[in-house]
Specification:
By secondary structure, this protein is mainly beta. The chain contains 2 helices and 17 strands. It has a 15-stranded antiparallel β-sheet that branches. A hairpin with a 5-residue loop joins strand 5 and strand 6. The radius of gyration is 23 Å and the shape is globular. The model has no long low-confidence stretch (mean pLDDT about 95).
């Protein structure tokens, strides 16, 4: 007889897409008629639970006297094949403290709804909430003949245990059927989607990361993070371009007094364009293989002062 007398749960038992709503109070679940927006298209969602355990030792003993739990730090990562830009902008826009909506100044709460057994043959809806969420890192990656991928890490104030009751009054959850339209792919940006100092380049791959360097503040008594604040934002990335178009990038890399320039990457024409300022190259890898298996490419790392996601 099997040890498992109930149906097992996996990602395919989700009943609604991963979704979010803005918070009124940090780390406090909105219960009165909240309206949730789908994160489209979500690939993977990975919560993290980092327990803060304190070892207690006593002089004269080799053994641990005890271990005490002092709280939990929460987070999650999510991989997205984007079809539009509003969700990406939470991680790519600097915080706007006057009108926080749509920027990293706004805290969000997420929910995932799925079927789970409760020790019987039947399965019931269960709700897993992520409260007090702010984006930490956002990476947009584009490779030839591939879908565009955005990978995000989020700081979270609290992830309560899943429950068979949402605790919400007349909530509005998105459905899978409500998500329509194609996701971004590399061909949406046209040929030579990258422009550096007004010169277009063929690239494969291209990647850019916004790091908000979240500051996590925990205060005495709660055992949880009580505030998440955006720190010093850093923007870095990498690109590979075939050798032969010109020597402008090699010359720029060799310039000990290199100055920042304007650069642009078109993810999807008229829909998603990354505009960079203060763009500087920071390193270059150019392997010369003894047994050739690849064409010669420059693989540059870069950093920039600002990078925003717009439509042009």
């Amino acid at each position: 007889m099997s040890q498992i007398a109930f149906p097992l749960t996996h990602a395919g038992t989700a009943t609604n897409p991963f979704a979010f709503t803005n918070e009124t109070t940090f780390r406090t679940k909105k219960t009165a008629s909240p309206v949730y927006t789908a994160v489209a298209i979500t690939q993977d969602i990975t919560p993290s639970f980092d327990g803060k355990n304190l070892d207690v030792r006593q002089a004269g003993s080799h053994l641990l006297y005890g271990a005490q739990n002092a709280g939990v730090d929460y987070g999650f990562t999510v991989a997205v094949h984007p079809k539009d830009t509003p969700f990406l902008k939470y991680g790519t826009e600097p915080p706007n403290y006057v009108t926080p909506a749509g920027t990293s100044a706004e805290s969000l709460q997420f929910v995932t709804i799925y079927k789970q057994a409760t020790g019987t043959a039947g399965m019931l809806d269960h709700y897993m909430f992520f409260l007090g969420c702010k984006p930490d890192t956002t990476t947009i990656s584009v490779s030839a003949q591939s879908l565009v991928e955005a990978s995000m890490t989020w700081g979270v104030g609290e992830i309560p245990p899943p429950s068979s009751s949402s605790g919400l009054t007349t909530p509005t959850f998105p459905t899978f059927a409500s998500i329509t339209g194609p996701v971004f792919q590399d061909s949406d940006g046209g040929t030579k989607p990258l422009t550096i100092n007004s010169v277009p380049y063929a690239v494969n791959p291209f990647s850019i990361t916004w790091n908000n360097n979240l500051i996590r503040d925990a205060f005495n008594g709660s055992g949880l993070v009580d505030a998440l604040t955006v720190g010093a934002i850093s923007i870095t990335g990498s690109l590979s371009t075939p050798v032969g178009q010109d020597l402008l990038l090699e010359t720029r890399m060799a310039d000990v007094a290199q100055t920042g320039v304007v650069a642009k990457y078109v993810v999807k024409t008229g829909v998603c364009v990354i505009n960079m300022t203060g763009f500087v190259l920071t390193s270059n890898a150019r392997p010369m293989e003894g047994a050739p298996t690849n064409t010669l490419k420059n693989t540059f790392s870069f950093k920039c002062a600002t990078a925003t996601v717009g439509t042009s």
